[in-house]
Amino acid sequence: MVHILEKAREPVEDVCVQLDAERAGTDPKVFTRIHIHFVVKGRGLSEKKVARAIVLSVEKYCKRFARPTLLRER
Length: 74
What we know:
By secondary structure, the chain is of the alpha+beta class.
């Protein structure tokens, strides 16, 4: 995500990713719910470009989240 924003010439100073997840109670203990919260800091950041970078990072470049069943709940 940072690379996408840097290519868009956005002044990213810091990025923090917070995760909250739940796993199945039985084997295989796969993740049943994952909530990702991005905190992106920088002066004059474009909210639209940050949102687009997050969507691209999660839906296009992260193979784990490319599974449609994981993208249902937002």
